[in-house]
Structure formats: C-alpha cells, structure tokens
Give the backbone structure.
Amino acid sequence: MLGKSVKIKKIYNKNNIEIVKYTSQNGNIVGKKSIQHNKYTKTTIIEFSNYTRIWMLPQEIEIIYKNIKK
C-alpha cells in the first residue's frame, strides 16, 4: 500500500482538532506505525502535499483509485 493515494473518510477520535483540517485533502501512504491501545495496532502514516505527516487507523482512510486512460 505504500505510495497509494488516500483520503480521510472518518475520524474516530474527536480530540485532535489539527487532523480535522486534513479531511478534505488527499495524501499518500508513506509508512506504517504500531501503537499500543489495549493491544498493538498497526496504523498508516499519511503525508500531505505540505509534507505534514499524520498517522490514521486503517478504518479511517479510503484508498483513491484513479482511472488511467491509455
């Protein structure tokens, strides 16, 4: 999934106001991160056009499939 374009579809944690401004932007998957929340969970690191990186849970993002014309 590295390099795929994604958009944020839903934010489950309403405490981080900074992430809300990225809900209308597309980003690229640039890595993975493990966090501990009751058990270890793998998250996705997304980078936006301004080089900001945030991590999101897999259920919070949607992969964007672009039609390629030949």
Observations:
- The two ends are 23 Å apart (CA to CA).
